[in-house]
């Protein structure tokens, strides 16, 4: 009799465990396996965003059902579009359909200044326009610029010194040209 109760209890526990693991709180692995493929680029496509928002060289990523994501690159890098984008080694934010909010780890260069990109969104996909919100301004770009993940030039301290030096030289020459024109 005790053996029968033991078997019934054991089978009840097994069925309870299997039903609770497939209920409302799926594991990270099952959340990823429900995606067409387990790449961050597929996550972007599934959410109506172009794959080229993130560069090549993603080492690992984490995407939660809530939309929260983290991307880890091998190293910080810069990519050139119409403007230059800087990607930190770690990027995070919240993905929902057509937008990435609470973004950190991406900066955009405009007029020799770097601005942190806080949000990226596509209002109407058929418009072919994507917007980058840098706080005070929202910059628009052609969606076609972001069709494929860009190559990204690694940014080391030597590269950074070179970039700053180049930017200072450009600013000096523009100031000098303006002064001569007056």
From TrEMBL:
Pfam families: DUF538
Signal peptide segment: 1-19
Keyword Protein transport applies: no
Cross-referenced SUPFAM superfamilies: At5g01610-like
Keyword Signal: yes
Keyword entries, A-Z: Signal
Protein name in the entry: DUF302 domain-containing protein
Organism this protein belongs to: Trapa incisa
